[in-house]
Amino acid sequence: MERKKIFIFLDSFINNSIEQIIKYKNISIIYRNYESNDEDEFKKIFKLTKKKNIPLFVAYNELLIKKYNIYGFYIPSFVKKKIYVNKKTLLIGSAHNYLEIYQKLKQGCKIIFLSPIFSNKNNKNLGLVKYNLITRNFNTLFCALGGINSLNIKKIYLTRSIGVSGIRIVKDLKFINNFVNLNR
Q1: What is the four-CA torsion angle of 132, 118, 166, 77, rounded to 10 degrees?
Q2: Do 115 and 96 contact (CB within 8 A), yes or no?
Q3: Domains of the chain (ranges plus CATH)?
Q4: Contact of 74 with 92, CB cutoff 8 Å
Q5: 91 membership: H or E segment, kind and range
Q6: Phi and psi dihedrals of 109, rounded to 5?
Q7: β-bridge partners, 161
Q8: Rg, the chain, Cα only
Q9: Which run of H or E residues covers position 164?
Q10: Burial class of residue 139, CB neighbours in 10 A (0-12, 13-18, 19+)
Q11: What residues contact 119, with CB distance under 8 A and at least 6 apart?
């Protein structure tokens, strides 16, 4: 069974949770805080990820990416323009359909978070079959996003996904434990 990655979206430094999750391998952090420009909050996450050698991505904040030596840059689906960053910076982004996937490829994204795979918002989830059919049409890496939990985590191994990502994952240590145990 191939090892999958976990990408965790954080908007703040949640000390207890982040301390629990950083002990696992194959974890990356995506700092995504569109509502606040609190650099102190970011610095805490930056220092911890640097100390523990955890890849850190910043979501659509060009000031932070220029000021700090950050591993990668996350481009949300609503960002349509080309992003210019250091060539060493890994670009990743999210998409919900073919048009957005093409857009992320034009922007230079090396990993695309395709969503929603399982979540039931408006019953518009992709499901396993549609997820795999879409990803087969592109020669790029995909990561599953949306509605992934402890009950459906094993299904991720039936996809062409390099891993999982989520916002609520950081609060679900049972999920992370199950996922890590599957990855062994």
Answers
A1: 70
A2: yes
A3: 5-182 (3.20.20.70)
A4: yes
A5: strand 90-95
A6: -70, 135
A7: 142
A8: 16
A9: strand 161-166
A10: exposed
A11: 125, 146, 147
Report the 10 Å Cβ neighbour count for 37: 11
Q: Which two tokens stand for residue 116?
A: 């929603």
Per-position DSSP letters for 43-87, written without gaps between them: HHHHHHHHHTT--EEEES-HHHHHHS--SEEEE-TT--S-----T
pLDDT for position 27: 85
In the block, residue with structure tokens 């990743």: 92
CA dist 59 and 73 (Å) reads 6
Cα–Cα dist 166/57, whole Å:
14
| pLDDT attached to residue 132 | 95
Cα 101 from chain centroid (whole Å): 15
pLDDT score recorded for residue 17? 61
More confident residue, 69 or 123: 69
DSSP H or E segment with residue 31: strand 27-31
For 103, phi then psi, to 5°, come to: -60, -45
pLDDT in the model for residue 113: 96
